[in-house]
Design goal:
Layout lengths: L1 E4 L5 H11 L3 E5 L1 H4 L2 H10 L5 E5 L1 H11 L6 E5 L2 H10 L5 E6 L7 E4 L2 E3 L1 H12 L3 E4 L8 E2 H6 L3
Parallel strand pairs: 1-4, 1-5, 2-3, 2-4, 5-8
Antiparallel strand pairs: 6-7, 8-9
Amino acid sequence: MTRVDARLVHGQVAGRWIKLLHADRVVIVEDEVANDDFQVEMFNLVAPPGIEIDCLTVEQGIERWNKDKFGEGKTIILFKYPQTADKAWRAGLKYSALNVAQVPMAKGRTRVYNTVHLTEEEREMFKALVAEGVNVYIQAVPEDTKMPIVDAISKMH
């Protein structure tokens, strides 16, 4: 699973998605996290037993993806920001689907779904990913029905 979630590793990811997907590792691809020793340590402390958490810059993420697609086993890839997911895609981390789970409200953002608030630029960016064949959808928790991002965006207008 590849996911945009501003909270990164939290209860829904650690407690539910990892178990449901039988994931072996979580890879956080976010420059600000990978370059902050405190955040790296914190995410490793909150990791469920037996789950490896790697915090990589976008550049490191692209290198690892191109080398071995993050290795054997099942991996959850997390981005904090929609822009990072787009940057990684454009640089070669070619995921087939992107779960948009939580993008908080901020200046310039409009609510497109309960937990997803996007700028006009982010809405266009997601539409472009969809046009390039990526299944971009909103699904916060496993019980939620997947909503195509373009449906959520079109309901705004």
